Amino acid sequence: MIYLDYQATTPVAPEVEKAMAPWVAEKFANPHSPSKWGREAEAAIEVARKQVERAIGLNSGSVAFTGSATEALNWALKGTVERARGERPERNRIITLATEHAAVIDSCEWLAGQGADLTVLPVRPDGLLDLDLLERELDDRTLLVAVMLVNNEVGVLQPIAEIASMAHASGALMLCDAVQGLGRLTIPQGPDLVAVSAHKIHGPKGIGALWMRKGAEPAPFMHGGGQERGMRSGTLSPQLCVGFGAAAKLADERCDRDYDHVHRLWAAAAQALGPGWTINGSTAHRYHGNLNIRRDGIDAARLLADLREIAFSLGSACASGSGRPSHVLRALGLDYREARSSIRLGFGRYTTQKDLVDACEQIVAAARAQERLFA
Ligand code: PLP
Prior knowledge:
Elements: E1 2-3, H1 14-24, H2 36-56, E2 61-66, H3 69-87, E3 93-97, H4 102-113, E4 117-121, H5 131-137, E5 142-146, H6 160-169, E6 173-177, E7 193-197, E8 208-213, H7 238-273, E9 278-279, E10 290-294, H8 300-306, E11 310-311, H9 327-331, H10 336-340, E12 342-346, H11 353-374
Parallel strand pairs: 1-11, 3-4, 3-5, 5-6, 6-7
Antiparallel strand pairs: 2-8, 7-8, 9-10, 10-12
Helix pairs in contact: 1-7, 2-7, 3-4, 7-11
Bound molecules: pyridoxal-5'-phosphate.
């Protein structure tokens, strides 16, 4: 099996597994209990919090752990609207992009159903936001601008620092979904809220975090025992927090090495694929561990079925299997046929050049076989 689906999830790092092990069974105390064992678990969680905050690298804020990035994004959006209802009722508008993850788009649509004023901006054919368009849209009713750093489907990088400063100039806040950027790139300064997820950085599934600039905290989302400074109730899992912390520390330490490795892999994949493929999205403003490509006339679903020993994706893992063409590829202007002939190869820290080249050669051979069949 060759694993090329790093945007869907990443293999757990051995260092993470080792760090989590004692907290799985042996150290089982509730981290919110005052016993010696409880305090030990709490201390381990606080170390992990600092490790995640360091990897995020933004000033003047802190992290609250959540069950996933999906939860962090729901909380950021719904809690910000909730808080503004009491404090700034004149601001009720959310601006986001057509290429955002479903956790953002669907939460925004839910909020629109509750009375929020929602604007979903289109992107250019290269996947980038037109900043002049944003400038025209921002007004004194805008509460929040939600834009992701690295797109999970096409790898395109949005200009987060510029977007944040434009949002601030109009008195709005900025939320950044940095799930695909954490540990891979430096997160630009500027956002007020940042959502991240452990399983995209070689950590465990079932834990994410919301980084909040001091003063920009959304209203509490989960009510109960008052954990996470009363903002997100629920007993924290020491094993998941410690795993997230270890993954964040490792990502921080290895960021440059991983980045160089990914660049070498990208070049090797491009060479092995050869001509006949078009890259979806900007080639200049992108994360190179995401190769979303199309080849005229091929049926990507059939390619996936023909190559069962290679794990790759049709589009986003969330949309795959739904039968619907990817909303991101459609937003880039691809027609139905082009979207259906697109595949996403995702690689990173543990991908070897040999495996990647081998997979690309198999993909090319299967695509050529299809072309002969349909000719
Ligand atoms: N945002 C982006 C860009 C993602 O790629 C994902 C996961 O696919 C999410 C949000 C949701 O993350 P989680 O799996 O932690 O809910």
